[in-house]
Amino acid sequence: MQKKLFLAGALIGSAMPCAQVQAQSQNNVTIYGDVDQYIGYIHSDSGKSVTGVNDGAFLRSRIGVRGQEDLGDGYQAVFTLENGFGANNGAMADTTRLFDRQAWVGIASPAGTFRLGRQNTAIFFIGDAIDYTTRTTFGSVINTFGVPSRYDNDISYKSPRLAGLQLELHYAMTETAGEHLGQRGVYQLGLDYRYGPFRAGYAGLVAKPVAAAVYGDAVQYHNVYLNYNYGPGTIYAAAVRTNNVTSNANGNNATAILSNVSATGNTFAGTDPNVKRFYNIYQLSADYKITPQLRIGALYGVMVDTSGNNSGAKGGNLGTFYDLSKRTMLYGFANYMKNDSNAGFRFGGSGAPTANLAGADINGRTLVGLQAGILHRF
């Protein structure tokens, strides 16, 4: 019996360091994510409709791991690995990547945070400043056009917030043989300023085309925004100017800068002179908190084709959010969009709807969409 007690004590004693290491690991590493599912209905004035269970009206379903290690003197090693998936069918958002949304490591310091790897853009980061839906639902016109969201081989710096102002810089390398550093790539700048109830800023990027591009114009995306928190809600104003209309890698593609555009009739091959086309997008929205759990909002936006080819659109939505808890939210939206005669834009959420319309049912058409869903964060 004494031998058995001694053996049990030895096993417990040997396990304690492992338990302590595991506890420390759990304190520094967090598994997180969300599941966002909604029933979506889209109707075109062509007479065609579609209904389906879609992923990500508000946030794309995802699972991630993030962590930090305290290095002392205000320094930390930090990392994030994040994968998107469709909870409606269990499929990975990108079957070619293990972590399609983010995969970076960096150092956080008193002077700011430095990161290396696949990262979200400065434009993506300020989504909550663009409109009351965080720029992701059917009715957001800025989202309908498409938002550059993330790039590989990205080097970034984000400053501390000083006197209300925060700076963000990115440079994504193309890693092309024969090109010197800085010759090509995606350059980003973000400036976010907060003062009392006001928030204002800019987020944008410029990307140089491939060396042999037929059209050498830089691909650009510029977004300015202004918010005012009036107490029970916030007013959002935003404007975008962009020529981000290239659909493939043949010519002026600037490292697949257009990966998140939802239009099917308004993207062009890099050898098409229409890649020089600029759009101006203007959007205004506001929300109002009726109770601590219930919030409503409205949005209207216009997309202007500055080339005069009548390829813009306009639209908006009415929406509501109800918090069942800190982690679980119900939501609903009624959305509207009218394409100009030569436009082919269609609805897109945080993730592209698996049940959507295309072709003759969107080109020059008026669309109505309904969304009702649930979002749970963990």
Poorly predicted ranges: 1-26, 248-265
Biggest β-sheet: strands ordered side by side in the sheet: 1-3-4-6-7-8-9-10-11-12-13-14-15-16-17-18
Could you spell the SSE succession in H and E letters?
A: HEEEEEEEHHEEEEEEEEEEE
The main β sheet shows up as: 16 strands, antiparallel, barrel
CA-based gyration radius: 23 Å
Subcellular location: Cell outer membrane
Membrane topology: Multi-pass membrane protein
Keywords: Cell outer membrane, Ion transport, Membrane, Porin, Signal, Transmembrane, Transmembrane beta strand, Transport
GO molecular function: porin activity
Which characteristics define this entry?
378 residues; mainly beta; Porin; 16-stranded antiparallel β-barrel; 3 helices; 10% helix; porin; signal
Q: Gist?
A:
This protein is mainly β. 10% of the residues lie in helices and 48% in strands. A 16-stranded antiparallel barrel has the order 1-3-4-6-7-8-9-10-11-12-13-14-15-16-17-18.
Q: What does this protein look like?
A:
The protein has 378 residues and is mostly beta strands. The N and C termini lie far apart (47 Å). It is 10% helix and 48% strand. It has one domain: Beta Barrel (Porin). The N terminus is likely disordered.
Layout of secondary structure:
Layout lengths: L1 H27 E16 L4 E7 L6 E11 L2 E12 L4 E2 L9 E8 L2 E9 L1 H4 L15 H5 L4 E9 L6 E8 L13 E10 L2 E10 L11 E11 L4 E9 L36 E11 L4 E12 L7 E11 L4 E12 L26 E12 L1
Antiparallel strand pairs: 1-2, 1-3, 1-18, 3-4, 4-5, 4-6, 6-7, 7-8, 8-9, 9-10, 10-11, 11-12, 12-13, 13-14, 14-15, 15-16, 16-17, 17-18
